[in-house]
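re: ur question from earlier - yeah i can do the single chain one, its not a big deal. heres the input i used so u can compare w yours
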Amino acid sequence: MSNFLEQLKEFTVVVADTGDIDAIEAFTPRDATTNPSLIKAAAAMERYDSVVEAALNQARAETGADAAAREVVDAAIDRLAVEFGQRILKIIPGRVSTEVDARLSFDTEATIAKAHRIIALYAEQSVGKERILIKIASTWEGIQAAEQLEREGIHCNLTLLFGLHQAIACAEAKVTLISPFVGRILDWYKKDTGRDAYPADEDPGVVSVTNIYNYYKKFGHATEVMGASFRNMGEICELAGCDLLTIAPALLKELQETTGELPRKLDPKAASSLAIERIAMDRARFDAMHAEDRMATDKLAEGIESFAAAQISLEQMLEARLATLVG
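and the output i got, formated as tokens:
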């Protein structure tokens, strides 16, 4: 009998949640996603020293001899993200997600400008925009940026998604993909309730993604659902059949080493027959639903802060490398 990973790939697109080229080669996902933490981890590996140095030198040439260190580093981070992205694209057949700085999450125009820069840098590497997903936080402002980018043919992955209101707004904006965070939802509920664990089928993150998936399929939304941020294999198994799942290497390995029957849990035909109320989304409804959802409110704010901290940590690492480079 085939292993769980092989069976999962029969009805769900598997995405590698890593910037480690070796891990991507080992598990042969269709797509991959990166973020500043993953890029920093990869950039810290000795074998990528030349990649980091090249990004810094290109950024120095781009910004000019009189540019401040922070300006050089900002340019280098964009180039480094694209460099790892295009290396990943040489391995996988699908798309790679590249993240916009989380500190821009409440600035629609700045998010759009950063997305344009990322796409332009990929174009320099002869990578078409059809293979790129711009990863943006699911704030109202981020969703509006994604709506504009999608009209331009730039596809987006809306991340830090914790509530149905965010998912509906993304679908109505016709974004390509959303990434609801299963494990982070579980973390919040465990802390809030004092429970140590939940059965996989009652896991609040699993329930949330299942509800979003069923809503999308019930009303024919084209936006894809990609479950993310898993804490255990049980969560993944309960979401078998979801459009995509982005999974860290350790859990990919566990799936690969597990044999038995993996049944499909999510199915568009089953969703189409469910009694679900359609919700029209606008800014007022979005804000009201967000305010009523303590978990989504807490986790979105925490997630943006965490992503921003990861960006700052990457900047600090590159500033140190730049200082060494320029002597």
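The chain has one domain: 4-31+97-310. not sure if urs matches, ping me
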